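Sanity check

After download, print the first record. It should look like this:
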Amino acid sequence: MKVKTILVSQPKPKTETSPYFDLSDKQKVKIDFRPFIHVEGITVKEVRGEKVDLNNFTAIILTSRNAVDHFFRIAEEMRFKVPDSMKYFCQSEAVAYYLQKYVVYRKRKIYVGARTFPDLTKLIKKHKSENFLLPSSDKLKPLIPQELDKLVIKWTRLDLYRTVVSDLSDLENVFYDILVFFSPSGIESLLKNFPNFQQKETRIAVFGNSTVRAATEAGLKCDITAPTPETPSMTMALDKYIKFVNKK
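Expected structure tokens:
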């Protein structure tokens, strides 16, 4: 079956140069965006219940923009003044750049990993004397604590936000040729919103091994997967698939 409509389970890109818009124009397909999950901040009361004193930490490990936002949110709500001497270990340049929203970049000690968390641990390893705080989601990749434990450093995880299933009830009678997922939480949201969902002719596109696993365990057929050596991005994988099925 030809592809005419796609639903991406993420917010609509803010930049006009998104490859999804290029894909839509190139292949003449309609692409809609809708977050299947969203993030909610954990309350100060809940954080206080963890009995973690922010004054004890000399360094912060930041793995995402959400981690940045919610650390500074909770610091403000708890009236904690983040000291100028605080060291920031950011997983990527994107996270480090986003940190400028809250601190004067050139006046802070900021260490930036290449991209993956194991890349960042190489920098953390050089600062073993620090007491590290890891602002986290309730759904933390197991790799992160495993890698930190290997370093034999002093670190504490503090959940500051949680991933919540979005209400998609208005989509009950709306059908798309392709549904695109980027996390197991997205698959979970689909099934919680539509427990009687039947795939039928709908194609499922998934990004990452954990998402493939979640979809397969849910009884879904994964028609499009990324990343692969040939299609490292989701838009490239979609482009290749649409080119193949729409020319028939």
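If your output differs, re-run the checksum step. Summary of this record's structure: Residues 65-77 form the longest helix (13 residues).
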